[in-house]
Amino acid sequence: MSYVAEPYAQFVEDLLTSLTGGVAREAFVYAIDEAPFRLSPPGPIVPLSLRVYGQLGGAFVRFVRDTDFTLVVTTDAQRLANDYTIQWKTQSDGSPAAGATLPEEGTPFYVNYDHTGPSGAAPLLSDRNPGSVVRLFAESYGREYAVVSRQLEAIYKAAFLDTSSNSSCSSASYGAAAPTPSARRCSPARRRRRPTSSSPRAPRCRRASRRR
Description:
The chain is an alpha+beta fold. It has helices at residues 8-19, 118-121, 133-158, 166-175, 181-185, and strands at residues 23-29, 37-38, 51-56, 59-63, 69-76, 81-88, 108-113. The longest helix is centred in the last third of the chain and has 26 residues, at 133-158.
């Protein structure tokens, strides 16, 4: 699994959903052994509000309901409530069904939705329209989150030779190994041995002056 930066619009949607009483970023890991992917809503889910997004092809994408996945609703007679499960459209061997796209194996995917539970039926903040205070707040914070996410992606890519930039490779190859001026002065190759009394000294030769 690799780190992938999330887009600005996704951060804004997550913040808006959370601030207005919905459930944002309910996390799962896409793997055959992890199924079924059962949601845990505080109340009945509003089906049209369901959004699922995850990693595909080195980027975050939003998956399409009834094309990539379906929402399966079953009734639990003991709890007198409904169970909600994300069911991906796959073939018997686990490959995508015709026309469907699936998250990359072993990567996380997230689910956002609204519900009619206690906190979702009458939220304290409800205005998601453009220009509202809630949306402006979400867009401001979403921009900061998106910048940090891009920076983290660049740091992650710089750790590998296949994805690092030229400047990163140059810094790793030359910048880190370059000795400092103090190290050059103190290097063993530049140190001179002081002659001791026991060490023989070579006789000094003087040039004879030439007389014209």
